């Protein structure tokens, strides 16, 4: 069964729909991720957080989660998280550091920025 709301990994397009599901700390995190100031590391860290919480790596086209779609799955996972908003923020901050470290290692080989490797092949 095909659901147009199903992606391979957590899609950023779902982030705005998660804002009202928890307390003010969570809402502030969502605002931070959606802001124009949020960079590659912040957006990637949020995606990674949601992938880990939702178990996106074990989702497949025949699974119940995939049939419901990413939006419904993410909303359910955020609502059912048993920890506090602060725990989610701590996990997010740790993932931002992890992603920043990964980016710095990957792009220390002569590229000035990650965006250079993503599109411009004309050097």
From TrEMBL:
The protein, known as: Uncharacterized protein
């Amino acid at each position: 069964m095909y659901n147009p709301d199903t992606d391979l990994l957590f899609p950023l397009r779902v982030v705005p729909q998660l804002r009202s599901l928890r307390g003010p700390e969570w809402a502030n995190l969502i605002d931070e991720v959606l802001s124009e100031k949020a960079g590659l590391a912040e957006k990637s860290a949020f995606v990674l957080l949601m992938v880990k919480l939702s178990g996106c790596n074990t989702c497949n086209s025949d699974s119940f989660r995939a049939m419901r779609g990413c939006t419904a799955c993410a909303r359910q996972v955020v609502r059912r998280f048993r920890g506090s908003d602060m725990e989610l923020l701590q996990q997010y901050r740790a993932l931002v550091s992890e992603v920043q470290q990964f980016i710095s290692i990957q792009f220390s080989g002569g590229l000035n920025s990650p965006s250079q490797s993503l599109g411009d092949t004309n050097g």
